Amino acid sequence: MDGHIATLPAQPMPATGLGRLADRLDRSVGAVIELVVAVLVLAEIIILGAGVVARYVFHAPLVWSDELASILFLWLSMLGAVVALRRGEHMRMTGLVTRVGPQTRAVLEALAITAAIAFLVMILPEALDYAEDERFIVTPALEIANSWRAAALPIGIVLMLFAAFCRLLRFGSWKPVLLAAGVTAALVILFWLIGPVLKPLGKLNLVIFFVGIVAANVFAGVPIAFSFALATFGYLSLTTSTPMVVMVGRLDEGMSHLILLAVPLFIFLGALIEMTGMARAMIQFLASLLGHVRGGLSYVLIGAMYLVSGISGSKIADMAAIAPVLFPEMQKRGAKPGDLVALLSATGAQTETIPPSIVLITIGSVTGVSIAALFTGGMLPAVALGIALCFVVWWRNRAEDLSHVTKYSKREIGKLCLIALPAIALPFVIRAAVVEGVATATEVSTIGIAYAVLAGLLIYRQFDWRRLKGMLVDTASLTGAIIFIIGCATAMAWGLTQSGFSQDLAKIMAAVPGGTWGFLAISIVAFVILGSVLEGIPAIVLFGPLLFPIAKQIGVHEVHYAMVVIFAMGIGLFAPPFGVGYYGACAISKINPDEGLKYIWAYIAALLIGLVIVAAVPWISIGFL
Question: Could you give the residue ranges of the DSSP H alpha helices within 57-101?
Answer without folding.
Answer: 65-87
